[in-house]
Design brief:
seven-stranded mixed β-sheet, globular, Aspartate Aminotransferase, domain 2, four-stranded antiparallel β-sheet, 16 helices, 496 residues, alpha/beta
């Protein structure tokens, strides 16, 4: 398979100047008639900018510019996106269509509840269905993203301990947990204690027992973990924490593997956050416009944030503030239209479709893992859940080709790289999650590409180290870009 045979690759390289380079004095994008009413004086000195220095462009110039730039973007609608622990699966367009219905898109958060029964029913039914999927009793849809849901879950645990008169400062986190867990705990002022994995990739029970004490507030755990393994000792883990007086938090990043099959509440977890953009197929929000729903056992329900859609025995649905709420973590009820999309997805799949999607996700991951195991070393041999982790340490030792080189090479074939260098306990890690929405033909094409890259590592390693070759840019200085971002155009110098 040549690079150019992969769908969409030949169109990736486009030379596109800046709009300031395209502008020509006198060009306009819109022509307005002269005003037929007197101009009103505007006396707000300093409030009107006169130094915008915007380029003069025709409408066609602008449309073609941004249309061409849009072809550089990559997403789940463009090609395979096997980003491990992120579940980048296809978002059905019927969900988007439903969310644009006027009654949903035009809903205002300040409408009285008697005029918002349809929106309230969406929120209420989604809360109830998420409780059914997780095995928990109460749910808030207010958090706006995954890590935001994590933060909220830890705040619930802290609020409950305070209500009991406890002062507990430590949060236990396995080294195979989702990567944002330590940050969320630290943001709440908790001391993070890392729990190592046993040789089988699951939580080391001896280390867990040794870490328990009167200062432990709880445990944050991802199951399946970031090695793609379901912890067979999960009930023992939650029992150990509970016997020591702690609570158990479940990170729902990987729920896609088990949704409708096994429930966190049945495993012994007290609070869970769910990523609607992962498990329930709403678009990824780039860190904000999403929903990191938080569910909990009944004893934590009084502490839930925000407004909960609740049934009124004597009347219609209404918003209800929990009695001992930690307060609002976002304005109003969260990102409502995201919830609409998630509910559409849940109702489309139904009771039979949700577990079927999970089984297909596991099937696809194991198919791809088995097909690649002939040349790539796996971090954990044997069956996985929805994702698997390759260890490229041997490949690097023998060829100097790193996991980063392999990831960059995938871009030349129109495949988004898997998660790189995570989990940290795996040397030269690539974590791949093909999801349930990819067909066998796509998986086979990706497998062929991985094999080709492996052969190139031994035959022409320098070619891989210079990858990508067919993208708008090569390898940017990602560290400097993250630490010293340039977010605006500098007029004076004409440089960005």
């Amino acid at each position: 398979m040549s690079n150019q045979s992969w769908p969409g690759v030949s169109s990736l390289v486009l030379n596109e100047p800046l709009l300031w380079e395209k502008g020509r004095p006198g060009r306009v994008g819109v022509s307005l008639p002269e005003s037929d009413v007197p101009a009103a004086p505007y006396e707000a000195e300093g409030m009107v900018r006169t130094d915008l220095n915007l380029p003069d462009l025709a409408e066609l110039d602008v449309v073609r510019h941004y249309t061409r730039l849009s072809t550089w973007n990559f997403g789940v609608d463009t090609g395979m996106y096997p980003l491990g622990s992120c579940t980048m699966k296809y978002n059905p367009k019927i969900n988007e269509k439903i969310a644009t219905l006027p009654g949903f898109a035009g809903a205002h958060p300040l409408f009285p509840s008697e005029y918002s029964q349809g929106a309230l029913r969406v929120l209420y039914e989604t809360e109830q269905m998420l409780c059914a999927v997780t095995g928990l009793e109460a749910c808030s849809l207010q958090p706006s993203a995954g890590a935001h849901g994590e933060l909220t879950g830890i705040m619930l645990i802290q609020a409950w301990h305070r209500a009991q008169g406890n002062t507990r400062t430590k949060m236990l986190i396995p080294d195979t947990a989702h990567g944002t867990n330590p940050a969320s705990a630290a943001m709440c002022g908790m001391e993070v204690v890392s729990i190592p994995s046993a040789p089988d990739g699951c939580v080391d029970l001896e280390a867990l027992n040794a870490a328990m004490g009167p200062d432990v507030a709880g445990l944050m755990l991802t199951n399946p973990n970031t090695l793609g393994l379901f912890d067979r000792n999960i009930e023992d883990i939650t029992r150990i924490v509970h016997e020591a007086g702690g609570l158990c938090y479940y990170d729902g990043a990987n729920l896609n593997a088990v949704m409708g099959i096994v429930r966190p509440g049945d495993m012994g977890f007290d609070v869970v956050h769910l990523n609607l953009h992962k498990t329930f197929s709403t678009p990824h929000g780039g860190g904000g416009p999403g929903c990191g729903a938080v569910g909990c056992k009944s004893f934590l329900a009084p502490f839930l944030p925000g407004m909960i859609a609740a049934k009124n025995p004597d009347g219609p649905l209404a918003f209800e503030k929990p009695a001992r709420s930690i307060g609002s973590v976002k304005a109003f009820h969260g990102n409502f239209l995201v919830v609409v999309k998630a509910l559409a997805y849940i109702l489309t799949l139904g009771r039979e479709g949700i577990p079927e999607a999970a089984r297909n996700a596991v099937l696809n991951a194991n198919y791809m893992r088995a097909k690649l195991s002939d040349v790539y070393d796996m971090a954990c041999p044997g069956l996985c859940m929805h994702e698997f982790v390759m260890d490229l340490g041997k490949l690097k030792h023998e060829t100097r080709v790193t996991a980063m080189d392999v990831a960059k090479s995938l871009l030349d074939y129109g495949i988004h790289p898997p998660t790189m260098y995570f989990p940290l306990i795996v040397n030269e890690a690539l974590m791949a999650e093909p999801t349930e929405t990819e067909d066998r033909e796509t998986l086979d094409e990706a497998i062929e590409v991985f094999h080709k890259i492996y052969r190139q590592a031994y035959e022409n390693p320098q070619y891989l180290k210079e990858s990508p070759h067919n993208t708008p840019i090569g390898r940017p200085d990602e560290v400097t870009a993250a630490r010293k971002p340039v977010l605006c155009y500098r007029w004076e110098s004409g440089e960005s």
